[in-house]
Known about the structure:
Blueprint: H1 3-18, H2 24-32, H3 36-52, H4 64-67, E1 78-79, E2 82-83, E3 90-91, E4 94-95
Amino acid sequence: MNPERWKRIxxxxxxxxxxxxxxxxxxxxxxxxxxxxxxKEVESLLSSYEEAGTGFLSTPAIDLRAALAPVPTRIGxxxxxxxxxxxxxxxxxxxx
Length: 96
């Protein structure tokens, strides 16, 4: 697909999304003017848009408050013959 074609598809998609869903089919029939590949591509993107729903991106992918919550400390615990006295570092996938 060349850049001009993609630009046209994006433009028609934006215009179709702005319309009432009942008006989209007649709009695409009119503006695609017999170009069935163009119409099929825009309809496919519209379908994906509708399937995503209005809740898409309205909720975060990660709860940062939970990610930043204090981790239970291991200080004072015993592992084998060793007593954990303090944490000297953490990161990546482990603690020292």
